[in-house]
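Fold it.
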Amino acid sequence: MKRYVGILSVLAFAIVLMNYSFVSADAAKGQAIFNDAKAGNCKTCHDIGDKKKVGPGLKGVTDRQPKEWLEKWLADPQGTWAANDEHIQDLKKRMKKEDKPNTAMKLPTKLAAEQVADLIDYLATLK
């Protein structure tokens, strides 16, 4: 009987851990950038769920776009928009912005490569 109680306790603990949201240190920094008006200021235009504000909701964005593309986008939104690659074409179609020559996305400051990586780590938690 004690053996079964022990096994059940371990299983219950494992289930709790599987449902617990772990945020890495980098993702925590990314969340701070997302919310900081002087850094990313993302929350002004983006929802962390599915809701469209000025820009699209960011839930699942790392499932829709490859990390390398997100790095380019966050480093240079205007240049990436102008390149009009397949990801931009898809984004324009989903946002109904096919006729727009420029993106409305503007960052308060240019993000460093480490900040971009942290921000992407945070975006990856939005499932």
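The first helix runs from residue 2 to 19.
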